[in-house]
Specification:
Blueprint: E1 19-24, H1 28-40, E2 44-47, H2 72-85, E3 89-91, E4 95-101, E5 104-109, E6 114-122, E7 159-161, H3 173-195, H4 198-201, E8 209-210, H5 216-231, H6 240-256, E9 258-259, H7 261-276, H8 281-306
Length: 307
């Protein structure tokens, strides 16, 4: 989970930063990126106005995990709910311009808002004009003007790109969702690298595991040995206190990923209920009636067999 300190640029009154990250675009790439960024612990805002490119699709049938498919709007509704579940915010607004700022980026919107963000992740489909202030620094494909990135990174510090704006774009929702996640993980790793050093950043992942995977005195000793052998040698000239803080944060991050069986079941049930919130009520009721009828039939068969 997150290895961020309690205070980020957005919560630090000593900076002009309003949000740690602004994600431009509320399609598959932008929403996926926002989930990962919020889970990492950054104050994340998604700005999205107008129809996502996915609305060109009549029915989304090839996104893993939805047998039979679902409508593009239901897919986006589920995506927004997921983003908000993780603590990020989605707002209806259109980004008109992004300019350099001493604390990151200054963002101007169609509704007249001005805000400062430490990071910006561009995931809009059609219009990249708001990035024109960085044209001299960004490399683009000569044929289509798609931006060239490295796992979502651009030559501009703090600026990341995912989805249809990139050279590797593919007009498939599942591909763009993965691209958004990849760019977000790159951003999280770079953030950790900036706070510490590359060996810390490159080992960031987002997952949960069985609670017995990590823990116990032996595990702590093994992690200390691993840290001293593989992580600490790459540290620049940092105070011992900073290095030890990095060590303890890594341990905490590993331990926080462990959940027990009861928590797994709780999350599984909550996850299914959240899905139900986005299903047609008549279909849910029809399915409930089918289940009840099947149970009654099974009970009757069992009773007759017992006689």
């Amino acid at each position: 989970m997150s290895t961020l300190p309690d205070e980020t640029p957005a919560s630090d009154p000593g900076t002009a930063v309003d949000r740690d990250v602004v994600v431009v675009g509320g399609g598959a790439a932008g929403l996926s990126a926002a989930v990962f960024l919020a889970r990492y612990g950054l104050d994340t805002l998604v700005l999205a106005r107008g129809k996502s490119a996915i609305h060109q699709c009549a029915h989304l049938e090839n996104y893993l995990g939805f047998p039979g498919g679902l409508s593009p709007q239901r897919f986006l509704d589920l995506g927004r709910a997921h983003v908000e579940e993780e603590g990020a915010t989605v707002e209806e607004d259109h980004v008109e311009a992004v300019d350099p700022h001493e604390d990151g980026f200054a963002v101007e919107t169609q509704d007249g808002r001005s805000l400062v963000t430490r990071y910006l992740l561009a995931a809009s489909a059609y219009d990249g004009e708001y990035l024109s202030a960085f044209d001299a620094d960004l490399e683009s494909d000569d044929e289509h003007d798609f931006l060239v990135t490295e796992a979502g990174r651009t030559p501009v510090d703090g600026l990341y790109v995912a989805g249809w704006l990139t050279r590797d774009t593919v007009h498939q929702a599942v591909v763009n969702a993965g691209d958004g996640a990849r760019a977000a993980v790159s951003l999280a790793r770079d953030d950790l690298t900036e706070r510490y050093w590359p060996a810390i950043g490159e080992r960031y992942v987002d997952w949960v595991v069985d609670d017995d995977r990590y823990g116990g005195a032996e595990w702590h000793e093994d992690v200390d040995d691993w840290f001293d052998r593989e992580i600490r040698p790459g540290a620049p000239d940092l105070d011992d206190e900073v290095i030890e803080t990095a060590r303890e944060e890594m341990k905490t991050a590993f331990l926080d990923r462990g959940i027990d069986e009861a928590e797994r079941e709780r999350r599984e049930r909550r996850g299914q209920r959240r899905l139900l919130d986005h299903l047609d009520e008549d279909l849910v009721l029809d399915r409930a009636r089918e289940i009840l009828a099947a149970r009654e039939s099974a009970d009757l068969d069992a009773l007759e067999a017992g006689e």
